[in-house]
Amino acid sequence: MEMMSTDRLEEKAPIVGRLRKAEEVTWINPLLESTEEAMRKIDLTMEDVRDAEARLERFAPFIRRAFPETEKDGGLIESPIRETEKMKDGLNEKHGAGLKGRLLLKMDSDLAVAGSVKARGGIYEILKHAEALALREGLLREGQSYEVFAEDTFREFFSRYAVHVGSTGNLGLSIGIISAALGFRVYVHMSQDAKQWKKDLLRSKGVQVIEYAGDYGAAVKKGREEAMRDPASYFVDDENSVSLFLGYAVAALRLQRQLEEAGVQVDEEHPLFVSIPCGVGGAPGGITFGLKLVYGDLVHVFYAEPVQACCMLLGMATGLHNEISVQDIGLTGRTEADGLAVGRPSKFVGKTVEHLLSGEFTVEDDMLFVYMKELLDREGVFIEPSSCAAFEEAVKMEKDPECARYIREHGLADKMEQAAHIVWATGGSLVPEDVRASYVEKAKETVLH
User: Considering only CA atoms, which of 283, 272, 427 is closest in space to residue 358?
Assistant: First the structure.
């Protein structure tokens, strides 16, 4: 398809003019509908999410054996939620956020095995693939404990097969770690944005890391081509995978139980706001779909992207989805937020959430480090700079004019004191100490300037 001129794009979606200038923007989604109406347009259902949850439970005995750190959770890979009252005070004092409700952190930064949100979808997809292969070959009998997946017979069997994935970092970690644990030959195709420590960690697990000078899109393209050459290969398609999407969606069912246990009400008088960092869209898309299935119109989901890599916002605002990239409007796609360094969004995700998503924020890289340091100083919690993009919702929701209009139009003005805001931390626990220290130094420099 021939790309529209920038003038015509701006005519169609005026916000493109501000995106081109790499400005921080707030975008409220004009296509948002009631959850009931939106779900009629989507082929996936709660039954699909429950099927994914059941599969993860079947694999719990294997996970517990392969990754002893999951013992305390019975082999389920789950993260805590944490109230961050001191961070809320900091955002109000330093950034004039005026945030009235509760501020919570969903700590997928601490997910076992892969240390990021990608531990959900990535690990789920590989487990589903392994299950299908084992059933097809008659290795797995009905009713058998999935602990057998840790045995040498299974590892030897899986070593005949290969897994390929393109990644800027965290998806590669999750796919690489779980695939290697099962015995697959694994190839992670990494873009120029990927951090060196992630490549080193993967190689230490026996994963083949293939590096490219190009961006995320180039790495995905090469990974797909390599996988197609080998009939025994499986390609994890971050842009179009339903399995990844459903693995992420399971998070909503677990979050519901956690909020109930923590006494966080979600009802007409207690709205829920969730903010998720966004790259190609898979993880935030799956989580959004799950949250909307669970909470319907009571939950308001926002994404946050770097100003130079705001591909999901650009795709949704123009309606072009994967037919437009940030480079088409003169942006670089480069950002310190490696997990979000994506130039072209997933069409599958964009089309699935286009009537469910409340809106988006873009954020300058410097702010990622400012939020990171404030969270560390005030709460003693470290998360990756990429994750910190999600704090934009908490800062902007009560003071931005676009957000004020959203709050009014949704009848929420008198309910904000009882609202809960969840910032979804998407990575952090596996970051080496020396890299953390360099991030903190960068944050200090940023604050000084």
Answer: 272
Q: What's the DSSP call for residue 116? A: B
Pairing of strands 272-277, 299-306: parallel
| Bridge-based pairing state of the strands 81-83 and 102-107 | antiparallel
Q: What's the number of CA atoms in the CB half-sphere (13 Å) around residue 92?
A: 13
Rounded to whole angstroms, how far apart are CA atoms 370 and 367? 5
pLDDT tens-digit series, residues 337-389:
988 989 999 999 999 999 999 999 999 999 999 999 999 999 999 999 999 99
Cα–Cα dist 336/443, whole Å:
12
pLDDT per residue as tens digits for the range 203-242? 999 999 999 888 888 888 888 999 999 999 999 998 899 9
Please check whether residue 277 is in contact with residue 383, taking contact to mean a CB–CB distance below 8 angstroms. Answer: no
Structure tokens of 379?
């709460």
Give the pair of three-digit tokens for residue 266. 């979600």
Q: Residue 314 corresponds to which tokens in the numbers above?
A: 């650009």
> Please, what is the Cα angle at 120 between 116 and 125, to 5 degrees?
130
Coil vs helix vs strand at 396: helix
Backbone conformation region of residue 287, classed left if phi is above 0, alpha if psi is from -120 to 50, else beta: alpha
User: Where would I find the beta strands (DSSP E) of 283-441?
Assistant: 299-306, 359-363, 420-425
CA distances to 55, 253, 336, 426 from 293, in Å: 19, 9, 33, 21
pTM for this one? Answer: 0.95
The encoded tokens of residue 270 equal: 């207690």
- Rounded to the nearest 10 degrees, how much is the dihedral formed by the CA atoms of 268, 398, 258, 264? -50
CA dihedral 167, 220, 359, 350 (to 10 degrees): -140
Helix, strand or coil, per DSSP, at residue 185: strand
Residue type (1 letter), 83: E
